[in-house]
Amino acid sequence: MREAGVITLGQLVNVCGPRLDNAAALTRQAGIRAVRILNQLLEGWRHQLAASELELISKFCKGRKPASHDDPFLDIRLTPVLGNVPKSQLLLKNVQPVDSSSSTGKLMYNTLVKILNQRSLAGRVDTTETQRAEWRSLYKPPLTRRGRDLQGRILHGAIAVNRYLSNINSNISAECPLCDHREMVFHCFSECGRLSVLFLLFSQMFSPAW
């Protein structure tokens, strides 16, 4: 069908007519001899269309109904296929079919992301309520907004350190400017030797006096 140039409903109507019943014309267009199979295929497509949609197609072909942006769009249902990944996995157990007319954009996006990354998600453990509460604590006073944003970016690895900048600009070295280690996010904020004096000062400031 793709090679014959019949991949949209409009192209199919142009070949088979508004009632989608001219299987012979479709066999000539697609170069397929199995008329019985094409009849079954057309019948299945007709059943997928509502009576109002078939009437709309008929009026359009007769010139009585010009195309309009207000015309109803065909409802599309996406059924996820998980392959060999068991649905009992925590991050994949709630993956359900989504409909273009009733599902929200967020639900459709989350479903598509889970399906495309099902193998990497199969072994992951879902975040617990305790962990979610710990994340929320990063965005509460007395932390300033700037401090909250910085901590969130550090924990998500969203900091432009040299290790990542060197992939974009070959003139930038991936090494830390203060030592000979690669400048990763955690190296920059916790592992670099230049921070030892600062951490020692903090421990003296905040340690009990007794």
From TrEMBL:
<protein>
    <recommendedName>
        <fullName>Reverse transcriptase zinc-binding domain-containing protein</fullName>
    </recommendedName>
</protein>
